[in-house]
Write a structure and sequence with these properties.
Elements: E1 2-9, E2 15-17, H1 20-26, E3 30-34, E4 40-44, H2 45-56, H3 63-74, E5 77-79, E6 86-88, H4 91-96, E7 102-109, E8 111-116, H5 117-132, H6 134-140
Antiparallel strand pairs: 1-7, 2-6, 3-4, 3-5, 4-8, 7-8
Amino acid sequence: MFLGEYQHTLDPKGRVVLPAKFRERLEDGCVITKGQERCLYVFPLDRWETEVERVNTLPRTDARARKLARSFFAGADQQVPDKQGRVQLPTNLRTYGQLTKDLTVIGVADRVEIWDTATWERMSAEADEYYADIEEALGEHGI
């Protein structure tokens, strides 16, 4: 399971060091792709297969599903972290995520997310405000 928030930097070659706590789960490989709100998702290979199945169940007759699948899969890149725990973030993904130098890497249970730090700080503040009032929202969903 991936948990926590870590500050990292993008090196001049477009690589980021993954947190030490995440490396064992990702050592056999991972897939990096576009996430929501302009972050990057990093899935361990077994979890990636689950995402592939989920997206493939969407109806191809739905234009929104086709757009989602195209963006999700065309932007994806399979990687194996090097011995220092680094992964290469391809130019297209760095551009999508608006990643420059300062990055925040977070664990979100079954996946890792990579954020531009300034963007993460804004998103995190919004999420914390939502979380503070979540009891009402969860009740609406029967949780």
